[in-house]
Amino acid sequence: MSQAIEQATAATEPPAGAREHLLETASTIMREGDIVDISLSELSLRSGLNSALVKYYFGNKAGLMKALLDRDMDGIVHEVDALMAKDMAPDVRLSRHIGAVVDTYYKTPYLNRLLMRLVRESDDEEAHRIADSYLTPLSRAYDRLIEDGVKQGLFRNVDPQLFYFTVTGACDRFFASRLVLKHCYDTELLTEALRDRYREHCIDFIMAGILAR
Q: What pTM was computed for the model?
């Protein structure tokens, strides 16, 4: 970044909502391109904002990626906490959760790949922060969800850790496989109708595997 741009950024007040707009634009670029990276030039062009604002708000592009992960994962953890606080049967709670996971990866198909990339590329302190903030709370929610279902005779006694990977893998893989759709099924368009079909499919298959017979 040139000194002139830095001075211009410091001398003017950023537009209202600029930080959120940069994050949403980055999310859109990765969603539409089926990628987990962006160029600052495209971000500037698509957002209509000076790329110097990335340094202003996030420090650098890596900081932007971390902020985007925090934004998306914070929402997921809060939704799971709210679901676990509701008074409902474990099988109903699990069905709703699976549906919500499908909706999440339809909206942000890059999310799991971005999470894994940042954990892999970050130093130990940042990797532990990501795990403690997002992965551990989700793991504990699965522990409790499975335990409640087993106690009530609704679920088989499955390993909560393996079940977490089953749900995440099934829901994430579909929306991260546009190249497979394109080359094998002659389409790469992830429509709402296709999302709805896959949501119902995942709920039916996963619930059939965990419900006590």
A: 0.85
